[in-house]
Amino acid sequence: MNDSVIKCHAVDKAYANKAVLREVSLEVAAGSFVGLVGMNGSGKTTLLKTLLDLTICDSGSIQLFGRSHRDAAAREQMAYLPDRFVPPAYLRCKDFLKYMLELHGREYNKEKVVRLFAELELEPEILTASVQSLSKGMTQKLGLIACLLSEKQLLVLDEPMSGLDPRARVLVKQRLAHLKAQGVTVFFSSHALADVEEIADDMAVLHHGKLLYTGRTGEFMQQYKAETLEQAYMNCLSQTSTITAL
Ligand code: ADP
Questions:
Q1: Residues flanking ligand 1, CB < 6 Å
Q2: CA distances from 179 to 39, 87, 142 (A)
Q3: Pick from 123, 137, 174, 216: CA 20 to 30 A from residue 241's CA?
Q4: What are phi and psi of 120, to 5 degrees?
Q5: Which atom of ligand 1 is nearest the CA belonging to 158?
Q6: Could you count the other beta carbons within 10 Å of the beta carbon of residue 222?
Q7: How do residues 140-171 score in pLDDT, each as one tens digit?
Q8: Positive or negative, the Cα torsion across 110, 154, 178, 37?
Q9: CA dist 242 to 80, 199, 239, Å?
Q10: Nearest to 146 by CA among 101, 204, 82
Q11: pLDDT in tens, 3-14
Q12: What angle do CA 215, 220, 226 make, to 5 degrees?
């Protein structure tokens, strides 16, 4: 059994009086690829931000690599791509990457940067361009590249495929598959169930702040008697609303 790199126990979070996370308990094993799915507003971003201590939970506990998530050292082996990633407008792409790498305690290695740019089909010329000149998809790729260059053991990616065109989605998924082969742990949110079905081994389904399922994606489909993750998800939600209505 792999050790857990993320362990949440009974995490609650409310904004004003609105409960956003309710008793969320989940574990992410070292080397696993876990997709966090749920409707808009179900609490995915809040959960990921809570892991990083960017949002403080009201109760419950979170451990990263066996240490409290409040301890900055617990986050040393972690890189994060926020939802709606926007790099500081005044930086050039290269400066942004250098800055991120410095924060991650890594050297800027031109060869690695150029290789990743080629893999994700970004022209190396844009390294000297302002981040402001990038399209949404290019900006997203830059954010992903910063995470990949960190070479951390755990990547927490909030909607990593957001804003990418179909070709870029494929390239990013191929890159994520490399990480899987290298034993990197990835915990990512997505509302594209096809992406989760394709790249995740495990999944967590969050609905109105409550976890409805955690476990293997294949078992989720079996449990909800469906051929696709999409159908299983719909069956899961309709069972939940039936139970809630009873
Ligand atoms: P998701 O990522 O699944 O779309 P979020 O975690 O972004 O969901 O949001 C969950 C709920 O919390 C939503 O109703 C959202 O409006 C609310 N929320 C998120 N952040 C804040 C905030 N900073 N202040 C108040 N409400 C918030």
A1: 15, 20, 38, 40-46
A2: 27, 24, 17
A3: 216
A4: -95, 10
A5: 2
A6: 10
A7: 999 999 999 999 999 999 999 998 999 999 99
A8: negative
A9: 36, 30, 5
A10: 101
A11: 899 999 999 999
A12: 170
Give the CATH H-level superfamily of domain 1-77+184-246.
Answer: P-loop containing nucleotide triphosphate hydrolases (3.40.50.300)
- Ligand 1 centroid from CA 46, angstroms: 6
| Per-residue pLDDT tens digits for 206-235 | 999 999 999 999 999 999 999 999 999 999
Nearest CA to ligand 1 atom 26: 15
- 50 Cα–ligand 1 center, Å: 12
- Distance, CA 44 to ligand 1 centroid (Å)? 8
Which is the closest atom of ligand 1 to the Cα of 55? 23
Average pLDDT (86-98) is 95
Residue 21 has pLDDT above 80, yes or no: yes
Task: Please say whether the dihedral angle defined by the alpha carbons of residues 239, 242, 244 and 246, taken in this order, is positive or negative.
Answer: negative
> Amino acid identity, residue 144?
L
